[in-house]
Amino acid sequence: MMRSCDVGIIGLGLMGSAALYELARRGCDVLGFDPLAIGAARGSSHGSCRIFRRFNFESEAYTALSDRAFAGWRALQSDAGQTLLLPSPILEAGPAGCDLVARSRAAAVAANSPLTGPRNGREANAAFPAFSLPDDWDVVVHDSGGILLAEAAIRAFRAGVEARIIQAAARIEPTPAGIRIITADEEVMAAQVIVAAGPWIAEFVPGLKAHLTVTRQAVGWFRPARPETTRYGRFPIFILEGARGMVYGFPDFEGRGVKAAQHDHGPAVGADDWEPPASDAELDMVAATLAVLVPGAAGPLTECDICLYTNTARADVVADDGNEFVIDRLPQDRRIIVASPCSGHGAKFATAIGAMVADMALDPGLRPLDPFRLERFSSFA
């Protein structure tokens, strides 16, 4: 007899694992499918850390989602009995008048959050000696940020539900009786499916392919020139809008060095294009930015990695800037819930998005948030 479940989840990165956790704890008969083991160097959720930001330059509307996510991370930490979110200030900076700082400040002001930290490059350099920002640069520092321990979070989501996880690649086949989930070894009939497949999402929702671009993002760890200035507790998470693009980075909280990368989109690739390994040349721009703006963190490149962003194009029905989430039911088959892509800035929201798609699976009448709906694209409208 074919195995069955109420909800099947395709893809168990941060979003899929969060949904699995939420549904399992609410008593739902749920199964998760993913061919990758935790720690595998593929997928958009692999690696040790991501940035948590309460205030997001992308949109003031994200603040409420961040607050829901923060409550979720605290609850998960309590449930797991371990720290998953390390508090850290976030410094954002760029040339006078830059949108990055202006929009981030506006998000804080809209939430009635006081801003008391450095407001220009000169003040930032005095507060954080690793930096050498131009004196007239705009700066905003938020005390509500943190370092999300991504791999540890996935382990916490999956703890206690290992029996519900099938480590196998899967495909889906809608039938009148349900959604058939097919692996190499078995078939499962699910009443609903949540697809959280990251860069592989277009394989399950082909109509999305025209609206997505997968990009290769090189990440590096740099041995700091002045390690005393870049250690955790002394040095903030940073996002800098430099002359050659946007660079983000972390304090040296693992003893591996300062992790830094370019946030601007890298070259377009396929979902399975993880080779070749990241090269020094791909991180030249990051190294050059550190040398000029964060000399305390500048030093030899000691490790590197590849991450893939799956980015949405600008909508053509409801105007947006692109790089937005897709969280919606598939219009042609409402039994399929789409919970990808996340456009390179979704990890911090995983607890909130996991709860959101769990709510949708348990309440077929629940309407997803308008900015995340598929109908913003004419091909789905």
The residue-averaged pLDDT reads: 95
Runs in which pLDDT lies below 50 for 5 or more consecutive residues are none
CATH 4th-level superfamily of the largest domain: FAD/NAD(P)-binding domain
| CATH topology description of the largest domain | FAD/NAD(P)-binding domain
Please give the CATH class of the largest domain.
Answer: Alpha Beta
Following the backbone from N to C, one meets helices and strands in this order, namely: EHEEHEEHHEEHEEEEHEEEEHEEEH
Number of helices: 8
Q: Report, as a whole number of angstroms, the end-to-end distance.
A: 39 Å
CATH architecture assignment of the largest domain: 3-Layer(bba) Sandwich
Total separate domains = 2
Radius of gyration: 21 Å
Given helix and strand content, the structural type is: alpha/beta
**β-strand number:** 18
Instruction: Characterize the largest beta sheet: strand count, sense, and whether it forms a barrel.
Output: 8 strands, mixed
Strand content: 25-35%
Shape: globular
Overall helicity: 10-25%
Short account of what is shown:
This protein is 23% helix and 27% strand. By secondary structure, it is α/β, with parallel strands linked by helices.
Describe it.
α1 (14-25) links the parallel β1 (3-10) and β2. The chain is globular, with a radius of gyration of 21 Å. α1 (14-25) packs parallel to α5 (150-158). It folds into 2 domains: 3-46 and 151-210 and 315-376, FAD/NAD(P)-binding domain (3-Layer(bba) Sandwich); 85-147 and 213-312, D-Amino Acid Oxidase, subunit A, domain 2 (D-Amino Acid Oxidase, Chain A, domain 2, 2-Layer Sandwich). The chain has helices at 14-25, 62-80, 99-110, 121-127, 150-158, 201-204, 284-293, 350-362; strands spanning 3-10, 30-33, 49-52, 85-87, 90-94, 138-142, 146-149, 165-166, 171-175, 178-182, 187-195, 212-222, 237-242, 245-249, 258-262, 301-312, 327-330, 333-339. With 381 residues, it is α/β, with parallel strands linked by helices.
